[in-house]
């Protein structure tokens, strides 16, 4: 028999899940206590008692998105050998995330960065923290490939991460806004060109 605390956790997960669905289709600003309550057939007070304010719900959504993103993109790549194999796996899964329009409506790191670029507060701070942690993860993975001798010793890791992020962002734009069926193919070609320029000299 499900305990009261287990029911509460299940309800909280449902609330955050419903709010996440709203965020990835309509933006973080679309989240409201009332709309989440309506979707789940709960009272507004019932939702509020579990998540607190709308801002706290937005933060909970970002934390849930971060968890799902890392589990989908990065964790599976950890099974690959450190260095270029792992870097390739991370980038491949990252690009597939961007192009899978049906499963992943958008990337909250990218969409949220535009949505909150000129705002202050906890939501922006959590967005910024997520983006910087992901950039740091990419930089660490690039540096591991350099240390393994798979990439040039003089490679500017920050510049490579910048260009990797640029490829991902334009893929999001073209796959979702332009609805270009060749967007993933073009992004993969851009990645291979960047990678070729980063390899050690023969």
TrEMBL record:
Residues 32-51 bind DNA. It comes from the Bacteria. Residues 9-69 form the HTH tetR-type domain. It holds the Pfam family TetR_C_13. Keywords: DNA-binding, Transcription, Transcription regulation. The keyword Transcription regulation applies. SUPFAM superfamilies: Homeodomain-like, Tetracyclin repressor-like, C-terminal domain. This is AcrR family transcriptional regulator.
